Amino acid sequence: MKKQIILLMVIAISSFAQWQPTDTTNVGITGSIVTHGNLIFQYGTYQGFRIFRSTNNGISWENISATVPSTFTNIYSFGGELFGVYLGNIYVSTNNGDSWTLRSTVTVTGNGAILALTSLGSTLYGISNRKSFFVSTNSGVKWEEIIINDPRNMVMVNFAAGGGKHVAVFANVGALVSTNNGSTWIEKNPTLGGISGVYSFNDIVFGFSFGGGIYRMGASDTGWIAVNNGIADNGLYQIPKSMYGNGNTLYAGVWGLFSSQTKIYSSVNNGATWDTLSTTGLLLNNTTVTPWFLTANQSNVFVYCYGTKIHAVYSLLRTTSVDDVSEKVPIEFSLAQNYPNPFNPSTNIRFTVHDDGFTSLIVYDVLGKEITTLVNEQLTAGSYETTLNATTLVSGIYFYRLISGSSTQMGKMILLK
Prior knowledge:
CATH class of the largest domain: Mainly Beta
Largest sheet: 4 strands, antiparallel
Mean pLDDT: 87
Low-confidence stretches: 1-16
Oligomer: single chain
Structural class: mainly beta
CATH topology of the largest domain: Methylamine Dehydrogenase, Chain H
CATH superfamily of the largest domain: YVTN repeat-like/Quinoprotein amine dehydrogenase
Strand content: over 45%
Helix content: under 10%
Number of domains: 2
Shape: globular
Distance between the termini: 26 Å
CATH architecture of the largest domain: 7 Propeller
C-alpha cells in the first residue's frame, strides 16, 4: 500500500493547487475585495451597496451592510483600522466593520471627491478625482491637500508614493511624477503603453501599462523600467489590472488583450521575476473593472471574479515563507515530523538540505493529489522551517514530500478539525 501511495505522488508532482469558489454573491462589475488581518471583506453596488465579511478564509460570509453609513467607493485597511470612503467623508471602524464613525471630512478643490485611500509607511493618502491628493500623518484625523499644478483639465484615477516619488495617474494622460513632494510634476510614461494604474510595494512604485505589462519606477530619476520576466508574452499586449502585496510576496492580476483571460502572478523579488499561479478552477474571463479584485492574507490568495453567469470569490492556498533556522551546514539530508501532529489549523515542518540546490516541499492528499507547494526555490545548504496553514482543508491524512537535487523524503501528518 505504501508503494502505491508513493507512485501516485510521483505522478501528481506535475499537477497544481486549485482555486476554490468560496462565495457566489453578486456584488456587481465594480465589486471589490480587501483583507484586514485575517478577515476578508467583499463589497459592491449591485442591488444597492452591500458588504460581506468572512472570518474563516471565505468558508462562510456575513452580510454586514446594515452597519455601513454610506455607499463606500473604497474600503482600506491601515494601522489596524478599517477605513471607508464616501465623497469627502472618511469613516473608520475599529471593530472589524461592526460599526463605523466619521473621522474627518475634506473638501476637494474643483468640486471633486475622494475615490480611494493608499499609504506608505505611517502616511495615509487620499486619492481624488480631480488634480489633487491628500496627505495625513495622523491616521486621517487631519489632511493636507496637495494641488498638482498642470493647466490641463484632467481626472485622476490612481496614485502611489514610494522611493521618494509621488506618482499620479490621470485618464487619457498617464503618469505624472514628482520628486519634491508635489511641488513640480513631470509627465512620464513608457514608450509602449501609457500608465493606467500604480501600486506601491516595498517602497517601490509599480506601474500598470496598457498593453506593455508591468513597469517599476527606477530608483533614480530614470523613469519606468519594464519588469515582465515570467509574464505572458513578456508583457506584450498584457494589461495589469490589480496588485496586492502581503509579506514579501507581490501578486498581480494581468489581463491578456487577445486571450481575454486574467492570470494571477506572484513575485518574491520586487518584480524581477514572476511565477504564474495555478489557473485550475479560476474564472479566467474576469470582466470586473475594479483595481481591487485581488488580495491576500497569510494563508490564502483571494480573487473577486465577475462574469456573464458566474460571480464568485475564489481562494487559493498560498505558499508560505521559509525561515532559515540554522547557519550550520547539515551533514545529511532530512525531513522532520511536522509539529504539532495531529494539528488544526497550522503545523510547522523542519527540514535540512546538505547541498545548495533547487528545493521543493509539496503537500498531497491520500489520493496523491497535489494540495499546495510550501517551498519551491533555490536554497543554500542549511536547516529550514516552514508552516502549512490548512484552514481551507478538510480533516484527514496528508503527506508532504521534500525534494532537493537527487534526494527525496516523505512524511505523513494528520489534520484533525
